[in-house]
Amino acid sequence: MAKSSSSQVITCKAAICWGIGEPLKVEEIQVEPPKSYEIRVKMLLASLCHTDILCTRGFPAPLFPRVLGHEGVGKVESIGEGVEDLEEGDLVIPTFLGECQECENCRSGKTNLCLKYPLILDGLMLDGTARMSINGQKLHHIFSCSTWSEYMVINANYVVKINPSIDLAHASFLSCGFSTGFGSAWREASVEKGSSVAVIGLGAVGLGAIEGARMQGASKIIGIDKNEKKREKGEAFGMTDFINPDGNSQKPISELIKDLTGGMGVDYCFECTGVAPFVNEALLATKPGKGETLVVGAGTHQTVPINFLSLLCGGTLKGSIFGGLKIKSDLPILLDKCKKKEFLLDNLFTDHHQVTLKDINKAFELLKQPDCIKILINI
Ligand SMILES: [Zn+2]
Ligand SMILES: [Zn+2]
């Protein structure tokens, strides 16, 4: 069993959110060495995911101060006792889910929510303590990750080792957004060949859902976004039809989708924006009785009004975290596709959409540009 030579506290820079709606501050923090079954990771690259913005607004709980960022790639700097399948120097992507492959949920084949390594909502490590602090004050993590930091500590069961030949930016994009969309079409919905699909919101998650639907053989893939520039992006991943709701009278999105499907609606509708009223629109846009609605995008609304009759008549409304992907069983398959260049991930990114950690607040501004899908953060 390897024990790390590095057992010192590291002082390094990290992006901290101190309160709801406050701009991030890049400050010096202290990162403790990894405890048992943990690793300390030197972050190399990170990216901005929509959920990070929600976290600056206190999602899923107002835990401050907090080191943000949950997409990224890093190199293992040191390892704690008991970590057996990783070595110092390995390249990894941190994730917010674990997979023990043994608990009731892991064995069920029905969910990717492991009971032993759960989605962590209290901003702490599994033992209830933090590994990051600033001048003696505890810093909350974001889920099991905090990637906008030069160093972070994570339980080894929440990381996936990656092949060094993978484009690191692409690996970062696969650590949440794009994979979430792809998984929702592939694993969660198991979209059938020849079926019709609608995807609401064409950010990285929505484009991933389009790619997943294309790979599954969907014959009609409708993308919906109010940003006209997303038409080209959607088409690059296999979208067959585009709806810009702003350019179409006052009809609700569900009606616009029905107009493109002979009035029937689609077999599968993926809601990727996290805007609560769109969940009901997605449900109404599916075929009566057998349509499936997948809620994929995170949002801050507590409740959502749902059309009762559509559900009563047999509609399926299902939520999905990380697209139903299991990090040990499924994510390596996506990373392999990435390595083989089967995903056209260059379409998610242009060179001028990158910042350094110290300019992290610029990332939130860049994301408002109409042609911006992903932003890289050089740590
Ligand atoms: Zn498990
Ligand atoms: Zn995310």
Automatic annotation (TrEMBL):
UniProt xrefs under InterPro entries: ADH-like_C, ADH-like_N, ADH_Zn_CS, GroES-like_sf, NAD(P)-bd_dom_sf
Family to which the UniProt record says this protein belongs: Belongs to the zinc-containing alcohol dehydrogenase family. Class-III subfamily.
Gene Ontology MF annotations: alcohol dehydrogenase (NAD+) activity; S-(hydroxymethyl)glutathione dehydrogenase [NAD(P)+] activity; zinc ion binding
Entry GO terms, CC: cytosol
SUPFAM superfamilies, sorted: GroES-like (SSF50129), NAD(P)-binding Rossmann-fold domains (SSF51735)
Catalytically driven reaction(s): a primary alcohol + NAD(+) = an aldehyde + NADH + H(+); a secondary alcohol + NAD(+) = a ketone + NADH + H(+)
Protein name as annotated: alcohol dehydrogenase
